[in-house]
Design a protein that fits this description.
It contains 18 helices and 14 strands. Helix 1 crosses helix 17, helix 9 crosses helix 12 and helix 10 crosses helix 15 (about 330-340). The chain has 2 domains: about 1-185 and about 360-400, Glycogen Phosphorylase B (Rossmann fold), CATH 3.40.50; about 190-355, Rossmann fold, CATH 3.40.50.2000. The chain is of the alpha/beta class. The chain is globular. The strands form 3 sheets. The protein has a 6-stranded parallel beta sheet with strand order 2-1-3-5-6-7, with helices on both faces. A 6-stranded parallel beta sheet has the order 10-9-8-11-12-13, sandwiched between helices. The protein has a two-stranded antiparallel ribbon with strand order 4-14. Helices cover about 45% and strands about 15% of the residues. The longest helix is centred in the first third of the chain and has 25 residues, at about 80-100.
């Protein structure tokens, strides 16, 4: 069987979710042909303090978002981006080379912006032959310069804006393809009808349902938003996903509510939850937005991480798939106004959200990975410069591995 290596990290839930979606699609489309590894590069192959980025990231964007945004924009500028990446190469080089040696693969799929360039550089400097390399961009619109490594074999982008930005950073048109963002194949399959989904979940079949999601880590002011909606005393049922945030979950479960309210921890059945809901309240995470569009679920976007998610807000609002309400009170007022529109108004909003959905994106990406995995190993610059140096990789005819 051929081996697929995913480069990702648990900095937020989107990178792992994208890798798992592609893996699931490939297991369905190409059963028994592949084995898969999800490699948390920050955790396993970067030095202190980067090792702790999975813990630092949610705290940083939740409690110091201004400094996060400043750092994001500094590293996104063309000149400073080169300086930052040069420092990363020096600090990460040894660990990334070790990763290459420890994880032989037939194709590498990178779903994190910071890992394509260091890995490509390490491949070119340490092996004679490398596997095909695919970058799958998991930001919708505000794509960082780090994503665009010119040496990758394929760069799969979710939107026209992401494609255009790749051209600005020197990628060739034949390197890129607009596929959409990968979401789990469960979303590409026919979703349950609303009433059927509610029955399966044990919800009230008749009451309109508002779904509040804080992401896998329960990020953002979820509790404040929940209490603001509760204060409206609306004729609805309320479903809140606390994610892995146990303190938030306990706080929500111990609160008094004016309407039927269910609190869930981290869930694996988001397609059912979205199929059963009428309105989604969420921060502007790209994965959740794409899932909601496939489900035809209109969105109230309650916040956006500076830099990387701000373009997502514009994308959703301009296409009529939702609105931006950056304060708890404005979220609650929007939910109230939408429910006042009745089923007809919600149906119109649902249609606009559904028009943005790309349920086949994950299948297109799986096909791209499969095609690249069939290729012969590719000569590196090290091979071209000096074929007398030892390599971690034997020549292809000798049974090439990383």
């Amino acid at each position: 069987m051929k081996q697929v290596a995913f480069l990702m990290s648990d900095t937020g839930g989107g990178h792992r979710a994208a890798a798992e979606a592609i893996r699931a699609a490939m297991q369905i489309r190409y059963p028994g042909e592949y084995t898969f590894e999800l490699i948390d590069v920050y955790r396993r192959y970067t030095p202190f303090p980067f090792t702790y980025m999975p813990e630092v990231y949610p705290r940083w964007v939740n409690h110091a978002e201004t400094s996060w945004g400043m750092g994001y924009e500094f590293a996104n500028a063309r000149h400073s981006n080169k300086l930052v990446m040069a420092a990363i190469h020096r600090m990460w080089g040894q660990g990334v080379r070790r990763m290459i040696a420890e994880h032989p693969a037939d194709v590498i799929v990178c779903v994190h912006s910071l890992f394509s360039r260091p890995t490509m550089r390490a491949l070119h400097n340490s092996v004679l032959y490398r596997p095909p390399f695919i970058t799958v961009i998991t930001d919708l619109v505000s794509t960082h310069a780090f994503w665009y490594e010119k040496d990758v074999d394929r760069c799969l982008v979710p939107t026209q804006a992401a494609y255009d930005r790749g051209l600005q950073f020197g990628l060739r048109p034949d390197q890129m393809r607009i596929t959409g963002l990968p979401v789990h194949p469960q979303f590409a399959q026919k979703l349950l009808e609303k009433g059927e989904a509610r029955q399966k979940l044990g919800w009230d079949v008749d009451l309109p349902a508002v779904l509040l999601v804080g992401g896998g880590d329960g990020m953002g002011p979820v509790y404040r938003i929940a209490r603001a909606i509760n204060a409206q005393k609306l004729e609805m049922q309320f479903v809140i996903i606390a994610g892995r945030n146990q303190a938030l979950r306990r706080q929500l479960e111990n609160a008094d509510w004016n309407q039927p309210t269910l609190v869930y921890p981290f869930v694996n059945n988001m397609p059912e939850l979205m199929a059963a809901a009428d309105i989604l309240v969420t921060k502007a995470g790209p994965g959740t937005i794409c899932e909601a569009c496939i489900a035809g679920l209109p969105m109230v976007l309650s916040g956006a991480i500076p830099g990387q998610e701000e373009g997502n807000v514009t994308y959703v609002v301009e296409h009529g798939a939702g609105v931006f309400a950056p304060h708890a009170t404005s979220v609650a007022e929007t939910v109230s106004a939408w429910l006042d529109e009745g089923p007809a108004g919600l149906a119109r909003r649902s249609e606009k959200a559904h028009a943005l959905g790309r349920p086949n994106a994950v299948w297109e990406i799986a096909e791209e990975v499969h095609i690249q995995a069939q290729r012969e190993p590719i000569r590196t610059r090290l091979n071209v410069r000096d074929t007398t140096r030892p390599s971690l990789s034997p020549a292809p005819e000798d049974g090439w591995v990383i």
